[in-house]
Amino acid sequence: xxxxxxxxxxxxxxxxxxxxxxxxxxxxxxxxxxxxxxxxxxxxxxxxxxxxxxxxxxxxxxxxxxxxxxxxxxxxxxxxxxxxxxxxxxxxxxxxxxxxxxxxxxxxxxxxxxxxxxxxxxxxxxxxxxxxxxxxxxxxxxxxxxxxxxxxxxxxxxxxxxxxxxxxxxxxxxxxxxxxxxxxxxxxxxxxxxxxxxxxxxxxxxxxxxxxxxxxxxxxxxxxxxxxxxxxxxxxxxxxxxxxxxxxxxxxxxxxxxxx
Length: 260
Known about the structure:
- By secondary structure, this protein is an alpha+beta fold.
- It has helices spanning 2-20, 67-73, 86-91, 117-128, 167-173, 228-259, and strands at 57-63, 94-95, 101-104, 108-111, 136-141, 145-150, 156-159, 165-166, 181-192, 195-201, 215-216, 221-226.
């Protein structure tokens, strides 16, 4: 009787483990059959020029030969800029107001919403040169933040110190997906002027680079959905615990029968 029970238990465990195993194909990124070891393959992608919006934060540096003039317009010291945390960069930056402009000392309001970063830099430079004819302006965005959630090894929000970032870079920042991350269904949530929009991306699709959602924008949220094997593994853990308990009980009973 107990031998039958142990045999049944072994077969049940083997069936569950076999059912829950994932194929190698399901964990491969960018499954493009054209990629090879000899010749590079051209991959078409889509680059989006982000247009600034209210509540974005800009760091504006005004460069002149007169150090005193530069210091008056710059909110942050050039020597200590690299030591600032994201919070300090926010406090020392220029927030775009609801009317789409930033307010520079003495110069006044300059409208930048709806412009790309390079266009905003040109617009601010025009305004500054009315007061400082030989000044050069450098504008950087310090509020480029993305959130990565779900089946990744290090979920959280990350600041991007670059003008562009894509989905693969976001996953790299979050320590890559776990084994149970669903590569076929990655949700990208994006705030637009007309409200929140969402898109599902398939990382196994070789055409993913051409999606406008592959290139991330400030405040995008990336959610990696779990595979169904996640629940199966959790159920298997519970089953393993029960099997250990039943195994211990059966061993004790067998020992008692043997001693009697």
